[in-house]
């Protein structure tokens, strides 16, 4: 809904995004919530290829979400923010719910534990010039990610639900789902456990996920930005 009209009293959301970067988390959330937003596409890495963006975000990183006076740079936090500010959509878990602790844990684990090791695989396997690449780092942190992913496999294996917590699809599934998307770009998905494989397939079938995938490609083409996923590009 990149060009959707605003409802009364709602401030337009602006999301700065690179194709399939961590900013895909809030993009996916926006499509699940079917909120109006404006998507600003950037070449990857923006701090090197779109220097003007440093005026918007001194870190030079995506995502950057702006809504009025709200400015956020952490993708998992954006998932929590969007879910909490639109509770009727059912993508959050209330503090009074028994699964609230698990919900927060998955949100934070999605980036701090699952995405973090993959960023080292990306940097030292793809982004650095050949003379600075570190195959041992790539191997070690690929193993690290897969070892931490056992938490997802275990939770899904012992769950009576198709989702990670609270018996329903939540922002936690979006946040962890992006880590699985990144793993797919890195070729690590072939080592997913059976429960994780099935979970990832279910997530990809969601209309919100498919709309987000289509939205980023359409916006990139309209704004003259390469459509190659950021994990697959080199500076």
Automatic annotation (TrEMBL):
GO terms for molecular function: transferase activity. Residues 216-235 are annotated as: Disordered. The keyword Transferase applies. Residues 10-90 form the GST N-terminal domain. Pfam families: GST_N_2. Signal peptide: none annotated. This is Glutathione S-transferase.
